[in-house]
Amino acid sequence: MRVCVIGTGYVGLVTGVCLAHIGHHVICVDNNEEKVKLMKSGQSPIYEPGLSELMQSSAQSGRLEFTSDLAAGVKHGEILFIAVGTPALPTGESDTRYVEAVARGIGAHLDSSTYKVIVNKSTVPIGSGDWVRMIVLDGVAERLKSLVTAGGSSEPTKEMMANFDVVSNPEFLREGSAVYDTFNPDRIVLGSNSQKAIAMMQELYAPLVERKFAQDQSLPPVPVVVTDLSSAEMIKYAANAFLATKISFINEVANICDRVGADVTQVAKGIGLDSRIGDKFLQAGIGWGGSCFPKDVSALIHTAEDYGYEAELLKSAVNVNKRQRSIAIEKLQQELKILKGKTVGLLGLTFKPDTDDMRDAPALILIEQLNRLGARVKAYDPIVSQSGLSHGLSGVIIETNPEMLADGCDALVLVTDWQEFLKLNYEKMAKLMTNPVMIDGRNFLDREALEKAGFRYVGIGR
Ligand code: UDX
């Protein structure tokens, strides 16, 4: 099928590249010329395992193109994905101005000869499906007006030009495993009131539904959940809010474990084996971050408020998370007492492993709080340290390897659970430190091994 993906941020690029890989002809549109140039040369602007390889093979097959020309993209696509950002405003609401601009742009380039499906892939406030339809129609009307002014009074009416439907198709991709998640989805959600649009989306996703690109192709087909527009939009918010709340729940349990002398990792195992609870997203630590959970939970709280409802549980999940980000500071104070003049080393900076994303990363708050308390902060991160991505980071010295990080530190805090941190030479690192304390902010390291290496090990809730 002919697909156009507008917006080559994290979601748009992964979606476009993967759809090209499964056999569709995809044009990705972005208004950032520099980025388009980079992608045309086969380079990915984001770090995501497996993405560059797929980009290059799809580009070679001629099924993946990049352009800044929206008109060309709209003309090409039978299915047009809107995948631009919806960042949080200071109030917690989503900023939908980019979606609006794209919808208007699509309208301005639509013609009535071919039916098009416009897909909302961005996480948009509930009710946006109908709103996007309205904006696209406005774009169509503006174009008609300019045509009429140019002298063609017998041009088609706005309604005649409205040969399209809107579908909400939320993504559930995790950063760091987005390519894997695309080929191995738990479900595909399609919201629309148009049977025709749903049928086209089912055709688009058929190879994924049949698991043709999945790791385990013997599994039954991927469930496709077909709903109305608003329910599909709500599914995205509810899924993220549930997962964020689940983490806040286990973090609260961890804080109680700390006080009563229980071990939260064993508690999580014990409750996770109950199939009604499940063992995923029960890893206690220094809290959730990233580009989705904080933004989406706040947006849902805000939507509820718009309708006069106070989302108390969600507000508590956010508050527990806020408090959790200071837990490493509390533990450092317990170990070192006064932090002023001490040197603290952070192992990891990104909000989670296998990504270069620092958005809402717990490390940022830690750096700020440590600086405020007069500590000197150093950090090593496998991606940030190697790629010079430290731009915009202040109040922290970036080291190029873990041993240089350990040198002269009064304590280390493991902030991100990068696999390579399991294999560091902790014995050597302990010797290089002024005071070998390890605050394991993700309960990730082996306590016994660390103690054997000479560390005093402090976990979260254990
Ligand atoms: C999330 C959702 O998982 C994904 O479905 C959605 O599309 C986007 O948001 P992502 O933000 O990439 O994905 O990361 P995820 O792996 O879900 O982790 C989010 C945060 O929770 C990270 O900061 C992570 O460290 C933290 N986390 C996760 C925990 O603290 N404990 C856990 O058990 C799991």
Automatic annotation (TrEMBL):
One GO term of the biological process aspect: polysaccharide biosynthetic process
Span of domain UDP-glucose/GDP-mannose dehydrogenase C-terminal: 345-447
Annotated InterPro entries: 6-PGluconate_DH-like_C_sf (IPR008927), NAD(P)-bd_dom_sf (IPR036291), UDP-Glc/GDP-Man (IPR017476), UDP-Glc/GDP-Man_DH_C (IPR014027), UDP-Glc/GDP-Man_DH_C_sf (IPR036220), UDP-Glc/GDP-Man_DH_dimer (IPR014026), UDP-Glc/GDP-Man_DH_N (IPR001732), UDPglc_DH_bac (IPR028357)
The enzyme's E.C. designation: 1.1.1.22
Pathway: Nucleotide-sugar biosynthesis; UDP-alpha-D-glucuronate biosynthesis; UDP-alpha-D-glucuronate from UDP-alpha-D-glucose: step 1/1
Top-level lineage group: Bacteria
SMART domains hit by this protein: UDPG_MGDP_dh_C
Binding positions (substrate): 172-175, 236, 281-285, 289, 352
Active site, UniProt feature: 292 (nucleophile)
Catalyzed reactions per annotation: UDP-alpha-D-glucose + 2 NAD(+) + H2O = UDP-alpha-D-glucuronate + 2 NADH + 3 H(+)
Keywords: NAD, Oxidoreductase
Residue numbers binding NAD(+): 30, 35, 86, 123, 175, 295, 359
Family assignment from sequence similarity: Belongs to the UDP-glucose/GDP-mannose dehydrogenase family.
Name of the molecule in the record: UDP-glucose 6-dehydrogenase
Species this chain originates from: Hydrococcus rivularis NIES-593
Lineage of producing organism: Bacteria, Bacillati, Cyanobacteriota, Cyanophyceae, Pleurocapsales
